[in-house]
Amino acid sequence: MKTVKNSLVLWLVFEVGLVAYVMFSSRLLPERVATHFTAGGAADGWMTREDHVLWFTLFSAGVVSALVGVFYLFRFCPAKYLNVPNAEFWRSPDHYPRAMEILFVFGLRLASALCIWFMLLHYLLIDANTRSPSSLSSGGITVLTLGLLIATGGWLVQMFRAYAKLKLA
Asked: Based on the structure, what is the number of domains in the chain?
């Protein structure tokens, strides 16, 4: 239970940090913000700074919060749908609550990582809007996307290892 509380606090710190970062760093943006870019990085969509702050904050914090909600709601799914190492052990009524706790903790960790990803995305957006003409760094977005994919892969490996090694029988 302590791990759940610690992970929840950590996620909330990152969530509040995300919102604060977007709100405070957005003053570095021009009044007309390039918010959409072609595959080549050229700006092809704009909005006002105020609209951007509102949209980006609601979207990023909303996506991350929805993810946490989904991981919380998994506990209400029937045990037969749990597909992890040592599944029969974790599906038993004695161990299913602990299995759902592990899943929720890993969901909170993923949500924390996504908060960082959204902060970095916003940084790239600020950087793109300091250029004339506005353009998104293809290298930056590639590194950010690859980083997210690698982090998600590592997250999956760690989660399945947790189910494999925590068999208490």
From this structure: 1
